Amino acid sequence: MSSKQQVLALLEQFKGSHISGEEIARQLQITRAAVWRAIHDLRLSGHAIEASTKIGYRLSESSDVLSEQGIRSAFTDKRYLDLPLHFHESIGSTNGEAKRLALEGAPHGTVVVAGRQTGGRGRNGKSFFSPSDSGLYVSVLLRPELDTAMALRVTSGAAVAVCRAIERMCERRAGIKWVNDILIDSLKVCGILTEGISGFETGRIESLVVGIGVNHTVPPEGFPQELQGIAGALFVDTAPPEASRNRLAANIVEELLAVVDHMGQIDFMEEYRRRSVVVGQRVRVMQGAVAYEAEATGIADDGALVVRLADGTVQSLRSGEISLRPILGSSW
C-alpha cells in the first residue's frame, strides 16, 4: 500500500476529527514530508482535507470520493474488513474484471468497485449507463453451493440485499421489478446482472458474479433523453455525509453476503414478494422476438415470475423481460 493510500486509510478512520501530521507519521512510520506529499496528492484527487497548524489534518465528513479505504472504513461488520477488495476509478466492466479474477482462483466474497464504467452491460448484452461521480458500480464474486437451477434465486436475493442497503442510509422505500431492477417512486435506481460459471459434468455453479449498478445522485448533466421518466437516483443533489457512495458500497457488500450465507433458506423470498411492484399487475412479457400480455400473479420460491395468460394458462417465467407499460395499441 502506498503512503497516499495509508494516509487516506488513517484519515478515513478519523473522519470528521483532526489528527496531527506528527501522529500520522508516527503511526505509519513515514516522514513528515511523505505525509505532506500524500495530503497534497489526496487533495488533487478531490478529497476535502482541512489543515490547521495547531491540530493537524481533518477529512471532512462531507468528502465523498470513492476509494478502497473509504469503503473499508464504512464496514460495520468487522468480518468483512479483510475481504479482497479491488477498487478502480474507471474500468470497462466490474463484472468482466470479477470474472477474470474468478478464473484466476479469487475466493468467495471478492469485491470489485468502480466509480465509472466505460463498457457497462445490462441483461441481454444491453449497454448500461455508467457515469462517473454520480454512480456506484459493484461486482461481488460468489462461490455458493447451488445447482444451476437456483441461479435465479441469487439474483432475487441480491435485489433484497440492495433494497436493505439503500434503506439503511435513506428514508425511501425501495421496490423490486422482476427480476433485477430496483425502483423508488416508480423510477429505476439500480440494475443487477448475475453471470455464472458452472461445471459441465456436475451441473453445479462453480462461481457467480453479481453486478450491481446504482444511481447514487442525478448526474450533473441529467439522464440521457432515452432514460427520462425511466431512471431515477437515491438523491437528487448532494447526498448527506452519512449516505456517501463509500457507505453504500459497504452496505451492499454486507447485505449481499449475509443473504448468500443463508441462500439455502427461503425467508428472503417472502421479503422479495412484499417488495414486488409487479405482482397483481398487468405486464408485457418479452421473450426474444415474442411479446404478449399477462397478469403477474406471484413469485415462486426459485425466483420465477408466475403469470396468467388471457386464456387462463399459468406459466412460470425464468427468462425474458417484462414491462409494466402496455403494448402499443393495447386497451390497458
Could you please describe the fold and organization of this structure?
Helix content is 27%, strand content 25%. With 332 residues, the protein is of the alpha+beta class. It has three domains: 3-59, Arc Repressor Mutant, subunit A (Orthogonal Bundle), CATH 1.10.10.10; 68-275, Bira Bifunctional Protein, Domain 2 (BirA Bifunctional Protein, domain 2, 2-Layer Sandwich); 282-323, SH3 type barrels, CATH 2.30.30.100. A seven-stranded mixed sheet has the order 4-5-6-10-9-8-7, sandwiched between helices. A five-stranded antiparallel sheet has the order 14-13-12-11-15. The chain has a three-stranded antiparallel sheet with strand order 1-3-2. α1 packs parallel to α4 and α6 crosses α7 (245-260). The model is unreliable at 327-332 (pLDDT under 50).
List keywords for this structure.
single chain, 332 residues, alpha+beta, Arc Repressor Mutant, subunit A, BirA Bifunctional Protein, domain 2, SH3 type barrels, 3 domains, seven-stranded mixed β-sheet, five-stranded antiparallel β-sheet, 15 strands, 27% helix, elongated
